[in-house]
Amino acid sequence: MSDLSLVALGSQSTSTELAPKAFVSLTHSYLNFSLGTQSALLPTRQVQEAITIPAAHITPIPNMPPAILGLINRRSQVLWVADLALMLGLAGIAYPTTQQYNLVLVQIGSVIMGLRVHQVVGILSTPPDQIQPAPAYVPPSLVPFLQGCVLQDKDVLLVLDGEAILQAPALRSPD
After folding, report:
1. Global pTM?
2. Which of 7, 91, 135, 164 counts the most CB atoms within 10 A of its CB?
């Protein structure tokens, strides 16, 4: 019996149809990752997957903005890969010297792009009312990419907007 076709039991002469149940999401889920010492979140609805790939699998493309690392072939699709910290203006992020890159594949509509992050932490579920405005110390260059922040155990998690990231000026080649 589906939720949309429930009929009140025990009524003999008249059956009363119950209204479809409205499911209200009490929490939203986010991919939790780090950019150096800064923790950040992306809505899971904007994340296709998180992967680790050898650095040699990224093909560099000449004359591209510094944030663009190159191209990868993923499941017969050619995808751009960018360094998220550079895109957001977070200079000085020290990545491990490993030859592996942690990538978050973000999908907005039909556009998919790989974003290099320092480390993928996991999934975090939080109620929407826990998202607060960004604190005053957040660099102004980062504000256009934020939906807000979540405070968790004395740590500030930046809630990023994947759509704004894919439209970042750092992805455009200089004219």
Report:
1. 0.79
2. 164
